[in-house]
Amino acid sequence: MNIDSQLSGDAERSDTRPILIIPYMWIGDFVRNHTVVRVLRERWPNRPVDLLTTSLCAPLVDYMPGVRAGIVWDLPRSRLAVRRQFGLAKLLRERNYGTALVLPRTWKAAIAPTLAGIPERVGWVGEFRFGLINRWRWGESKLPRFIDENAALARPDGAPLPAEWPVPQLRVPADEIARWREANGLSAGAAVALAPGSVGVSKRWTYYPEAARLLVERGFEVWVVGGTAEKALAQEIVAAAGPGVRDLTGNDLRNGVLAMAAAGVAITNDSGLMHIAAALGTPTMGIFGPTSPYLWAPLNGLAATVVQDKSVLSCQPCQRTVCKMNDHRCMRDIAASEVVGIAERVLGEAGGEG
Question: The domain 3-152 belongs to what CATH superfamily?
Answer without folding.
Answer: Glycogen Phosphorylase B; (3.40.50.2000)
